[in-house]
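Sample 3 of the quickstart, ligand DGJ:
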Amino acid sequence: MKKNTELINGNVWYDTDGNVLHAHGGHMLFWQGEWYWYGENRTENRYVSVYRSGDLVNWTFCRHALTTDSPTAEYRVKTDRKLRTADGGKINVERPKVIYNEKTKQFVMWMHVENGKDYHDAACAVAVCDRPDGEFTYLGCFNPFGYMSRDCTLFQDGDGTAYFISASRDNADLHVYRLTEDYLSVECLVHKLWQGEYREAPAVMERNGKYYMFSSYCTGWAPNQCRYATADAVEGRWSMLADIGDAVTYRTQPAFILPVKKETGIDYYYVSDRWNGKDYNDSRYVILPLSFTPDGRPVMEYRDEFCPGL
Ligand code: DGJ
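Result:
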């Protein structure tokens, strides 16, 4: 198959076998010289698929990382470990994110889980694997400290401290939880942010010691205005929200922010979903570069293609 030098935003993207790439609401992990892209795959019995790439534009399918038949295991946190509904149907797994725990040598996935019928469970779930491209073991879902938990992300700080961030109180508030050292549970709730502002799809990055959190408003599958806030530390004081991009964020919703280290510095990309609410499996991706003004304000402009030039 011909190698890609770029990906056209909003087109169907294919893996190197020529199959449609399903990694919606996803996340990337850089590991030993390659990127691993995890994301939602709702086809057949699948929940999460993982792909691998050395250049960010040619993606090789690794495997389905989580399916209805994945192994489950009990751990110290009391959870619901069912990967199917009572009538044998599928649950709903959204926005899987994966980080590596240096101390336990485990790849840890957090995600949003629902019962497959509605959004009433509002739970988060954890899965683990000893390699980035293996099948994950599902440790089950729970409500962190009893709270509702929907759209989510993970952020790993430079010192290894990791945070799980998720929409709570029927999406009205955004919670920030510090994770336990093994990343398998929440240690404490460090913030309830932007109460009543209904932020979804959080995505966090750090640049020059400044932290940025991007998020969307809450309008189902329909796109809306992306906004961002900044802080000097994840557990520090976050600013109020400011608009970025156009009024519908170029018809996208944030998935995560991708930092790419180059010899010249770090490039940051806004990786997003262009959802198709009528035909979910035809949802697409849009990846846009983020630039920064001298005083650190992020700027997002539309580009037809994603061309990281690696
Ligand atoms: C917006 C969320 O960001 C998506 O992950 C998904 O939950 C849809 N809402 C469902 O309407």
